[in-house]
TrEMBL record:
Ranges of residues in domain Phosphoenolpyruvate carboxykinase GTP-utilising N-terminal: 17-53
Lineage top rank: taxon: Archaea
GO molecular function, one term: purine nucleotide binding
Protein name: Phosphoenolpyruvate carboxykinase GTP-utilising N-terminal domain-containing protein
Species name: Candidatus Parvarchaeum acidiphilum ARMAN-4
A Pfam cross-reference name: PEPCK_N
SUPFAM superfamilies from the UniProt entry: PEP carboxykinase N-terminal domain
A Gene Ontology BP annotation from the UniProt entry: gluconeogenesis
């Protein structure tokens, strides 16, 4: 998962756009996808527990 250091390395224009969308949509949380095996396992386990993964 991305940490604060990784997020700060993103282009300012991208961070600004994400902030705009966040303010407009008011999500409960934001998940920064990093494509790691750890992330895949976490999402697979979550979706399986919720009955959304076949």
């Amino acid at each position: 998962m991305l940490d604060e250091k990784d997020i700060k390395s993103l282009p300012d224009s991208l961070v600004s756009w994400i902030d705009e969308v966040k303010q407009a949509t008011r999500p409960d949380n934001i998940h920064w996808c990093d494509g790691s095996d750890e992330e895949n396992a976490e999402l697979t386990n979550l979706l399986t527990a919720q009955g959304k993964w076949i």
